[in-house]
């Protein structure tokens, strides 16, 4: 795959995709598969180094909003078939997702979500604390009211997904230019006509912004408001566990956002720091672990004292309502965007790649994605509801 740093980029392209993460790679693959030619992906770093850089990404269809359920469910099916299309092992592990609930209000909200999910073909169900503990022996049931479990959810490796999509796109003729930051967009009238990069200008017919946490900056270059802010998220890995850890679901303590699941020969531990300031800093800070340990002492005591061997910090790309921005700019009709996934981008990437392909081809996607237009924040009326945010 031609993902080495380019000295120059092609002088022109039909489509320029800005961002070489899972969203840009999925979009490039789906466009190329549909017969679109002369596609260039420009990426400021190596492929998959932004939000897609995390070592393991959850995949789920457990959401409270029907549109997110559809995007998650369709993507899950694509990940199950990924070995055949586009053709790569992504180490998908269907261990299920287990949401731990400690209040009657949470249980009620998740019950409503399960009804919606079941109506859309997702086999999720509400379970009691004892069954949750059987699924995940690390748990203390103290204070647990209920849990929500879906056996077809799980996790996979984002890096392998990015490479799988990118290699298939490259085989189909897509040019992938890494280490090629975008410095500006040229517009004429109501069109984007060029993308300026560190390795030259690309005249183009369409621009697709899939720049993750950097999408607001790309939008500004075109005069398009994409309200995305970067927020650091951190995780840690335990030392190898002997005897080996039981195979457990992707387990989330919903109140605290603490989560954990299997990772190679140990466990991966994560939690969203509520006091984390916005910014592009991705320095991993071991002190953050104490936040996780504090929650674990109550919810999963055995985890609180486990030895850890390093960790990782990456960026969430967060919108005001924690839902994605997918659509076509009203001001610049040849500027499309897929960004702001607020932690759900990896698990929605296959379906979103399809939807952006259909937007480009001006045909109806498999579901109506117009509610995810960035214009919703201008109108203020249709802020998307989504309760199942971690």
TrEMBL record:
The UniProt keywords, alphabetically, are:
Oxidoreductase
Keyword Oxidoreductase assigned: yes
Keyword Oxidoreductase set for record: yes
User: Which residue numbers delimit the FAD dependent oxidoreductase domain?
Assistant: 15-359
Q: Which InterPro entries match?
A: FAD-dep_OxRdtase, FAD/NAD-bd_sf
Identify the domain of life: Bacteria
Phylogenetic lineage: Bacteria, Bacillati, Actinomycetota, Actinomycetes, Kitasatosporales
What species was this sequence derived from?
Answer: Streptomyces rugosispiralis
Q: Which residues form the signal peptide?
A: none
- Protein name per its UniProtKB record: FAD-binding oxidoreductase
Q: Name one Pfam family in it.
A: DAO
């Amino acid at each position: 795959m031609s993902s080495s740093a380019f000295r120059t980029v092609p002088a022109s392209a039909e489509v320029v995709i800005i961002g070489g993460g899972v969203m840009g790679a999925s979009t490039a693959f789906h466009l190329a598969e549909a017969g679109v030619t002369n596609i260039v992906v420009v990426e400021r770093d190596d492929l998959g180094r932004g939000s897609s850089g995390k070592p393991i990404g959850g995949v789920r269809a457990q959401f409270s909003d029907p549109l997110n359920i559809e995007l998650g469910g369709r993507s899950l099916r694509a990940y199950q078939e990924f070995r055949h299309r586009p053709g790569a092992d992504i180490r998908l592990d269907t261990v299920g997702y287990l949401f731990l609930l400690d209040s009657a209000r949470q249980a009620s909200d998740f019950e409503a979500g399960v009804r919606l999910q079941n109506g859309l073909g997702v086999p999720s169900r509400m379970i009691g604390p004892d069954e949750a503990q059987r699924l995940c022996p690390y748990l203390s049931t103290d204070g647990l009211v209920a849990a929500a479990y879906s056996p077809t959810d799980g996790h996979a490796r984002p890096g392998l997904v990015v490479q799988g999509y990118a290699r298939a796109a490259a085989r189909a003729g897509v040019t992938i230019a890494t280490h090629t930051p975008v410095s500006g967009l040229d517009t004429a009238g109501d069109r984007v006509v060029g993308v300026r990069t560190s390795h030259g200008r690309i005249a183009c017919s369409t621009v697709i912004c899939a720049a993750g946490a950097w999408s607001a900056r790309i939008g500004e270059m075109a005069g398009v408001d994409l309200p995305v802010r970067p927020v650091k998220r951190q995780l840690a890995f335990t030392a190898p566990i002997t005897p080996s850890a039981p195979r457990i679901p992707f387990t989330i303590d919903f109140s605290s956002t603490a989560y954990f699941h299997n990772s190679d020969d140990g466990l991966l531990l994560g939690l969203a720091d509520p006091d984390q300031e916005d910014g592009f800093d991705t320095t991993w800070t071991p002190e953050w672990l104490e936040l996780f340990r504090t929650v674990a002492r109550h919810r999963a005591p055995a985890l609180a004292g486990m030895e850890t061997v390093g960790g990782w910090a990456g960026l969430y790309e967060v919108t005001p309502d924690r839902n994605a921005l997918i659509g076509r700019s009203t001001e610049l009709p040849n500027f499309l965007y897929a960004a702001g996934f607020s932690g759900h981008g990896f698990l929605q990437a296959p379906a979103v790649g399809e939807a952006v392909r259909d937007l480009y081809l001006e045909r109806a996607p498999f579901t109506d994605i117009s509610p995810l237009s960035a214009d919703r924040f201008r109108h203020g009326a249709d802020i998307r509801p989504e309760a199942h945010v971690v």
